[in-house]
Amino acid sequence: xxxxxxxxxxxxxxxxxxxxxxxxxxxxxxxxxxxxxxxxxxxxxxxxxxxxxxxxxxxxxxxxxxxxxxxxxxxxxxxxxxxxxxxxxxxxxxxxxxxxxxxxxxxxxxxxxxxxxxxxxxxxxxxxxxxxxxxxxxxx
Length: 140
Fold this sequence. Notes:
With about 140 residues, the chain is mainly alpha-helical.
């Protein structure tokens, strides 16, 4: 298990607030599904009703736009955090992960790559946790 890194040593290249926003919205998107209104029961608290898309939720297109609006360093940091959360890299390999993520993102479509990860929100949260930080501690 990797040792927690001292907060003063950590430079993720992206703010925890930005990562938390993406984590929250990715988790919402991954938990939602399109539901046929005919399948909904009259109970607003039924599983089908709770999983229905809410117009107030950030859409996948809006999250895609949000990620693509980040600068290249922030996009590379997101990719590297997802890889770290997946276990491909550890905190001690952060600079290497960042370098490879920047190379991977030369096409400039980090959002498509990231949003195609099945559990993006959890991967990013795990990546942050590997540095001894917590997304849950970030004020929203």
